[in-house]
Amino acid sequence: MKRLAQLGLVLALAAPAAQAQQAAPATPTAIAAPAAPAAAGMPAARAADVASIDAIVAALYEVISGPAGAPRDWDRMRSLFAPEGRMGAVGARPDGSFVFRAMTPDDYISRNTKAFATMGFFETEKARTTEAFGQIAHVFSTYEARHAKEDATPFMRGINSIQLIHDGKRWYVLSLIWRAEDAKLALPERYLRNG
User: Fold this and answer.
1) What is the DSSP string of 20-45?
2) SS in 3 state form for 66-83?
3) What's the pTM?
């Protein structure tokens, strides 16, 4: 009798799950891979660079950093982004208005290759707040930029807002938008420590 009662409990618990399975619409559970033509020219990513949120954020900082004249591995940078990936910078104009400069990773490369040939640039992460749900993540990453690794004081600080997606195999950067602090906009204390 006790065994029958246990079996009845198991069936009672299983029945709603079975009914839910039958009633559930046939929806895909995996994120569709990027379209083949858009991804065909993309360089392959290093598996270690895209295995986790920590890894892809570290790779973003590492790939743009280096001494003056040191070549950057731009294919490595391209490999971190989804084919639809975009970048952008928000800045204040002298008149107090703001401008948003949107760009692709290739636009960023074109705009910065010449500067990096004559200027050292080392960007490091000071603090981070991450929100993640399933295959999406948002990283609010506080950065510091120096002309040399050993510089005691950064010449610039700000926030990188990084939106990431996971396709079941790896992480991709979908968007990266940054805003540097200035005389009118200082970094709040909460973004100077990990959240």
Assistant:
1) HHHHS-----SPPPPPHHHHHTSPPP
2) ECCCCCCCHHHHHHHEEE
3) 0.79
